[in-house]
Design goal:
Elements (H helix, E strand, L loop, with lengths): L1 H5 L3 H28 L2 E15 L6 E3 L8 E13 L3 E7 L2 E7 L2 E5 L5 E8 L5 E14 L2 H52 L1 E2 L2 E2 H9 L9 E7 L5 E2 L3 E9 L6 E7 L8 E3 L4 E4 L4 E10 L5 E10 L1
Parallel strand pairs: 12-18
Antiparallel strand pairs: 1-8, 2-7, 3-6, 3-8, 4-5, 4-7, 9-10, 11-13, 13-16, 14-15, 14-17, 17-18
InterPro entries: Ig-like_fold (IPR013783)
Amino acid sequence: MFVTLLNIRGKAKRVLLKFLCIFVLGGITWLSSQAVASAYAVGEIQVQTSTVDLYPYSYPSVTLSQPTALHKGYYIYARGVQWNGSYFYTDVLKNGQWVTYNFGDVNLYFGPGDNVTAVRFRINGSSGYCRIEYNIQWGMFTYDYYESSTMAANVLSTKTSADNAYSAASTAATYALNAYDAANAAKASADQAAANTTYNGQSAAYWAYLAAQGGVDTTPPMIQKVGGQNGATCTTTGTFYVVVQATDNRTGQLQARVQVDGGAWTGWYNIPQSAIPVTLSTIGAHTITVEVKDVAGNTSQATMTAFRV
């Protein structure tokens, strides 16, 4: 888990660390509840047992008497004994607000710090009914000193281990974040150094490429053929497709563009892959000019005549 944590930074890292703390502290709270679960009653105990029928929108409520002892708790047990189409929820009034704790049969314990003052039962549907029987005990409870001391020691040890794990995770995450930032800074410095290494407006990488190619390319491409698609020399529709073949002294994609009768140029097309469409606007002969360029920007031109009939 710590390895995964190292790959997370910023807000996500903090959220994950917070979740880790909540998870560990939740485990500690669970252990504490296990210690209380071994409690037994020693005095000032009150018990209420009853059977009640639940119908839609009726919420039978039981107010819990408050024992005067410092250590007090509540055991709440309820189960359905007969129902038709609906079962029941159990709510407790905790800190002045109703909180839903369970759907269905319950066996709950609330300790001194839970501030529970009432319990109610309600049906889960808008029709039908459910008959339940419940048993509520409240008063002062205690538990064996040796057992509770051992559990408390275990809880304290778990908390210490959790604190140490949190500290180690936080330290490791900080180291990982620092290393990540350092790597980003180094990359930015390298990129800036490469960008600053220029000559005549071109980067060092550009000049290295030219050197590998044998120096600056000033040789224009050679146009070998200009013609109509599939050997055509005329069109009846006004659209004519020009096919261009050319070679160059260097490797790289050649491109071509076309104009008709000295008009506007088309866009650049990769050749020989593309047939370039042009429009012959009037009946008769038209002069088609083709310009080819290589990767270095050297250009060559050729012409042909096409007809619209």
